[in-house]
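Quick one, tokens below. Sequence please?
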């Protein structure tokens, strides 16, 4: 059973608990259920309905009229309306609706609109990653399963690959396409996920950021065994190795992995990101050639102002 507390609903829809209770009493918008221990909860149909109401209220619709629509009617009104140039944070509810309903066409359309109207970089930073943080509550409550995660990450991954491929197909010399972010001086980046790591969406976006700034990138992908790095290092001679540590090192020492990497490949800088790397920052000393990236802004700083960042 998909059960959401009133705090969950408030976090996911932006509707304050006090407002929600008024809607329940005045318009019978939703009817919360009760557990055997008399605790209020809302189901997935309630969530879909409240998400739809939240979006449409921002477009000038009246709560009195919206309360008469079913959750499916609200869903269709949100996902198939012609959206103008909206602030990115106003698309969160629509993306959540599309994900819950596994509505691929709607999710793709919403994503394409955000990319086209705001640019890939801004859309990813101000919409997609906040979207993942916001729906984290759905994973915690068990209201969405891995199928939902695979559904949305597959679509976003495809969009990023297409955006990256535009740089590659046009060639590194095309400064006009890359725009003002492109730098005259480029470095060589070797990008990978260590063995056992498979969550590459963030790394793909980092790939995009680097290509947009005219950097040379060898993107190796996920689950790269350590011995392969020795071969890649000899063949590519990177200035930077960039990788993420999310889960694979949970049962071993993150610090020992990083120290070994620094000892075996001392000629290049190692840019490390991910939750496990951030956790390790509290227990180990980060000294060159190891550098912790806490977010994508750190990566941009590395590329655009390397001397300032490393000083």
């Amino acid at each position: 059973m998909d059960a959401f507390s009133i705090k969950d609903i408030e976090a996911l829809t932006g509707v304050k608990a006090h407002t929600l209770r008024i809607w329940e009493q005045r318009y019978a918008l939703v009817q919360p259920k009760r557990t055997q221990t008399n605790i209020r909860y809302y189901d997935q149909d309630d969530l879909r309905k409240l998400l739809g109401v939240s979006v449409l209220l921002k477009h000038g619709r009246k709560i009195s009229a919206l309360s008469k629509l079913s959750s499916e009617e609200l869903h269709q009104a949100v996902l198939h309306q012609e959206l103008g140039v909206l602030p990115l944070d106003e698309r969160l509810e629509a993306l959540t609706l599309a994900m819950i309903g596994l509505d691929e066409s709607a999710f793709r359309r919403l994503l394409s609109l955000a990319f086209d109207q705001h640019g890939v970089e801004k859309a990813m930073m101000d919409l997609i990653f906040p979207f993942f943080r916001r729906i984290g509550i759905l994973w915690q409550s068990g209201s969405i399963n891995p199928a939902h995660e695979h559904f949305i990450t597959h679509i976003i991954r495809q969009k990023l690959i297409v955006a990256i491929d535009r740089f590659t197909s046009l060639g590194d010399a095309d400064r006009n396409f890359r725009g003002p972010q492109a730098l005259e001086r480029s470095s060589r980046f070797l990008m990978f996920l260590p063995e056992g790591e498979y969550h590459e969406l963030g790394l793909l976006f980092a790939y995009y950021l680097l290509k947009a700034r005219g950097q040379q990138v060898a993107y190796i992908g996920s689950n790269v065994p350590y011995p392969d790095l020795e071969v890649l290092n000899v063949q590519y001679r990177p200035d930077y190795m960039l990788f993420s540590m999310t889960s694979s090192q949970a049962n071993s020492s993150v610090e020992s992995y990083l120290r070994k990497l620094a000892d075996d490949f001392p000629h290049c800088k190692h840019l490390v990101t991910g939750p496990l790397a951030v956790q390790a920052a509290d227990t180990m000393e980060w000294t060159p050639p190891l550098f912790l990236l806490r977010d994508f802004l750190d990566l941009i700083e590395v590329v655009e102002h390397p001397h300032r960042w490393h000083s």
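Residues 22 and 74 are 19 Å apart (CA to CA). The radius of gyration is 23 Å.
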